[in-house]
Amino acid sequence: MTEPENSKSIKFGIAFKLGLILAAFGVLASGVSGYYSYTAGRALVIKLAEQGLLTSTHVLGRRLSIALGEVANDVRFLARIPAIKRISLPSGNLPVESQNVLADSFAAMLSVHPEYFQIRLISADQNGIELVRLDRDRGKLARVTGMDLQDKGHYPYVFQSLRLAAGKIYLSEIAINHEQGAHSGLEKPTLRVATPVKSPTGGNSAVVVVNVDLNSLFSLLKADLPYDFRLFLSNEAGDFLIHPDASQTFGFDRGRRILVQDAFEGASSIVEGKAQSAVMTVSASERQPDKVLAAFIKLPYGDTASNRFVILGLTQPLENVLRDTRLLGLNIIQMVLLFSIPAIILAVIVSRAMTGPLNMMVRAAKRFSEDHVTIDLPLERKDELGLLARGLREMQTQIQAHLSELYESQRDIDHLAHHDALTGLANRLMFNARLEHAIANSQRTDKNAALIFIDLDSFKEINDSHGHAVGDKVLKAVATRLKGMVREVDTVARMGGDELIVLIEAIDDPHVRFVAQKLIEGFRPPIHVDGKDLQIGISIGISIYPRDGNSPSELLNKADLAMYRSKKAGGNTFHFYAAEMAPAKTG
Q1: pTM for the full predicted model
Q2: What is the CATH number of the domain that holds 533?
Q3: Are 233 and 240 in contact (CB under 8 A)?
Q4: pLDDT tens for residues 355-388?
Q5: Which residue segment(s) compose the domain that 366 sits in?
Q6: Do residues 26 and 343 make contact, with C-beta atoms less than 8 angstroms apart?
Q7: Where are the alpha helices (DSSP H) in 199-353?
Q8: What is the rounded distance in angstroms from the CA atom of residue 437 to the CA atom of residue 440?
Q9: Apex CA 260: angle with CA 245 and CA 256, to 5°?
Q10: Contact criterion met (CB below 8 Å) for 495 and 428
Q11: Contact 525/578 with Cβ under 8 angstroms?
């Protein structure tokens, strides 16, 4: 039976109807499988993102605990400064020289910790008078003295700290600082860390207090978080202390409550003490309804006996998490189309026995999509499945060929970006990079590097007499000859026109002289181009790092000056840079 007759019988026979039903079933199955693959992949992406976000929150919480521990260590260190022990009781006075020593120590601590905005020594007597106080005021350190020192004995961070044993730490509640005279810390979220000062006679004679700028502290902690992460912090009741929208923080300080459990319902389990962590997907806010992933953890705060804690959280836009699933969806659509069209053709003559080869092609397509690896296909079949398999293999081969061409083009582009198009030598961009590397290497190994600046003595006459085409061939021959006279590790570059330069690392002056003389001798034989013997001489200028300069531009300039001295001497010679070569200053 001929092909047209066969097609006609299939078109009007029962086989065609059965094939149509099987084709419809295949398309439907392919579509359902694709949809299931997409939804399963999307759910997996979200789950992995939730786990990663929760891990990031735990890491940030660990950093916060470490940071608070470092603040506590700083406070203990200040409390052990010898000058602080000279407080006299019961007067609570401190000698002036001791005050100055402590002021210098407090200033040094503030200088290295930008997140601290105030350090004070407060007496246990005289109503808790401030004995020494250093404030950060608009980027500068200001010492407060005399009548500006205040009584602080009625503040909890003073009288509660005085009840502690030596070395114990008091952590205040996180609140807005309303204490007047706090300069940079006024009206900012503040954490006070304090410890008592033990007197030589027993008891506590004073308190050292460090005021920490909460915003600065968290800016340091979250510096390396992804750009789209948002940070939240609340107290144990759920009041926001840190929020991307500053108007949502410290609502209790303004007479209203703005709670984390209202914005993130899943966080209520932490506030109620039912869970240590919570992960959820919610709308960011009424004004910003886009979905976000959110992770919150319970973070112990202060000494373990108090059972105090804060709630730390991170959010990430769900849209950013699912961005990669768009590509997954497109790939699945392509696969559905790829297998739907052959299903319509093959359904006329296939049976369930043909599902094995079809599955083989599914695995091959998936493996190729994921790893660009080809696996066995039923290429030997003579039916439509074999045709599809060969088409798939041809597509894989073409894609691999295109990828190879892309990689090769990328290598060519990279080569052109760093090499001279005419001679193939390194260009100025690549040479500058090599020179910076050589300078860094010389600083590390304490060995010299040399720049040999070369100008062709008779090149202009060759160009004028024989034309630019011959001149280009001469430049190529010069480049080849130069590369053959230096080491492979040395860099030969064309800076433009007939100016070339050689970079030699780990070299001393006698060796440089030897190389320069070798180059001059190497150009005494003529260059054979287009049946002509053309004589080329070279003028060489040499600068040495670090003797003649510390920067690439300085070394190049001085090598150029030395080269011009060789030109003036008649060419075909070399000169090292010397101070008298520098142009005279005018004015």
Answers
A1: 0.51
A2: 3.30.70.270
A3: yes
A4: 556 666 666 667 666 666 677 776 777 777 677 7
A5: 3-27+326-405
A6: yes
A7: 214-221, 260-263, 268-271, 318-321, 323-346
A8: 5
A9: 75
A10: yes
A11: no
